[in-house]
Amino acid sequence: MIQHLITLPVLIPMIGAMALLLASQASDTRRRQLSVVLCAAQVLVSAWLLSRAAGGELLFYALGNWQAPFGIVLMVDRLSALMLALTAVLALGCVLFASAGEDARGSNFHGLFQLQLMGLNGAFLTGDLFNLFVFFEILLLASYALLMHGGGKERIGAGLHYVILNLAGSALFLVALGVLYGATGTLNMADMARRVAVMSGDQAALVTAGALLLVVVFSLKAALLPLYFWLPRTYAAAPAPVAALFAIMTKVGLYAILRVQALIFVETPAAAHITTWLWWSGLATIALAGVGVLAARDLRTLVAYLVLVSVGTLLAGLALGSIEAIGALLYYLPHTTLACGALYLIAELIGQQRGKAGTRLVRGRRLYQRHLLGGMFLVAAVAVAGLPPLAGALGKLLLMQATEGTARLWLWPLLLLAGLCALIAMSRAGSVFFWASYKGEVESGRVSRPQLAGALWLLASAPLLVGFAGPVSDYARDTAEQLAAPQVVISRLLGASPALQFGQHILDEGESP
Amino acid sequence: MEALFSLVVGVLTASGIYLLLRGRTFPVIVGLALLGYAVNLFLFSTGGLHTHAAAVIGESISPADPLPQALVLTAIVIGFAMTAFVVILAIRARSELGSDHVDGQSGEAGDAK
């Protein structure tokens, strides 16, 4: 019985989504309660998986009991458990916030939200490349609908770009899968890792092409430099709770790159190409996003560029590849995701009290609850700019410590300058919102209790991640060590008789093209 | 057969990408559909091209690989749903933005007044 529980992060949102979509006649309150309960259940399940994985345990689940290289497997290691927990925590805050009324502006908000969670959780759990594609499509389809929740010109226009770009990305994903399947004859990640390690000649060239195509697709999701231009407009147009949830969407791309790089391609010629590309594009993303942060004329766009700064930082850290660097980025990742999510929610709260001026950086009327919102904005700004005493500073410090040699010359100044840009932009935004205002506030757009609960839930992560910095960074480091030893996963999943199976594989190879 | 097959996939991909880069939503959607066909054909060929080979063991001397066929089936279903969605979205964008240009520009021939 207990081994089936690993499927719960996919099953809970799937069944919940069906119930929510079917119960369209139920009252808003009922649906909100159900949705919050589902998210809380996912937090509990992912906490349980996290505690199992923290001990170094690897959990596998063969769907339909089809054994590993032939059927689809779900796999939980430290990285998957961390991402699942992060998703669940973020989602709970977003659902609480949306329950204040945002969800009633269109139809089926909660059902779609749960479907999106199903796609996210599935993508983090699966150990099969084609299954990863299917879960990507699930989360994308749900995200298309969520992005346009409530309608409006801005959202439809941004949504059209987002959908077309991602459809083209999906086509590229399938091409990459086709190339890899044609070259290796398998789609299971662990099995593929074992086969690409002994390839040479034409087949190895095909694997390199497939690997680079995959990285292009994942970079599109992660919003790396040449492929990020869709992000600011899309995120700025999305409804606040959806934009906050989208903070994890870029991290799905990052997770996928980290997974395929660490598990499959680490020993192949493709690995060097991948890290070179990630390093330079990551650095360029930090630089351009820093400029974008300064240039933004609206708080939502500003936060979108801050998301891009964190993407660039994380991917440049990924390209460093050492255990210290991966550990540092895994410590930084939850912090930056939750801080950006919280900022989107706070931006919405500020916008709803400023009437027509909204979140644009112009003089507007004085905020009604300026002390509460000012305090929350201050904490979020300090967190996202990476200033001490919050966790962003620790994460950046760990990452800077992990860089060695000439890499320091590039990463250190860019990282610090991007932090400075974020600081300048956030101080400017804060002074416009809270000080440069007309006298005479209007009592409208009061922060409701669920909105406050949702925003504080996400915001609480910043001090908590500092308070528990020791255990969290130990966990991140253990995760990096686990990722650095992919042989353990492969032998646990496929058994320890590689020689025999390789012989079988080479026989098969004669027949394939 | 291989040459013809790859030629077809190549032409479909090239036309798909050309149309994808157009400015109006309708050619873009047709481009996405063509790209989808090209990708499906390509996936189909990843198991190797055989004639007279059923994907069932015992039906023919060297059975074809059944996995690409399953993958293509999944890809077709997903592609179908996505195309339906993007068509509806394009119609919605045309009515909301008053233009079927992908950037919402208006003032060109064929735009709503």
Task: Give keywords.
heterodimer, A: 513 residues, mainly alpha, two-stranded antiparallel ribbon, two-stranded parallel sheet, 22 helices, 4 strands, 2% strand, globular, disordered C terminus, B: 113 residues, 3 helices, 64% helix, 0% strand, elongated
Helices and strands, with pairings:
The complex is a heterodimer of chains A (513) and B (113).
Chain A: H1 8-22, H2 28-54, E1 59-62, E2 73-76, H3 78-98, H4 109-125, H5 129-147, H6 153-184, H7 189-196, H8 201-222, H9 231-237, H10 240-246, H11 249-264, H12 270-295, H13 299-320, H14 323-353, E3 364-365, H15 370-385, H16 391-402, H17 407-434, E4 437-438, H18 449-459, H19 461-467, H20 469-483, H21 486-494, H22 498-509
Parallel strand pairs in A: 3-4
Antiparallel strand pairs in A: 1-2
Helix pairs in contact in A: 1-2, 1-4, 2-3, 3-4, 3-10, 3-14, 3-18, 4-5, 5-6, 6-8, 6-9, 7-21, 8-11, 8-12, 9-13, 10-14, 11-13, 12-13, 12-17, 13-14, 13-17, 14-15, 14-16, 14-18, 14-20, 15-17
Chain B: H1 2-20, H2 25-45, H3 66-97
Helix pairs in contact in B: 1-2, 2-3
Structure description:
Chain B: It holds the Pfam family Oxidored_q2. Chain B: Its main location: membrane. The complex is a heterodimer of chains A (513) and B (113). Chain A has 22 helices and four strands. Chain A has 513 residues and is mostly helical. In chain A, the strands form two sheets. A two-stranded antiparallel sheet of chain A has the order 1-2. Chain B is mainly alpha-helical and 113 residues long. Chain B is 64% helix and 0% strand. Chain B contains three helices and no strands. Chains A and B meet through helix 5 and helix 6 of A and helix 2 and helix 3 of B.
What can be said about this structure in brief?
Chain B: It is found in: Cell membrane. The complex is a heterodimer of chains A (513) and B (113). Chain A is an all-alpha fold and 513 residues long.
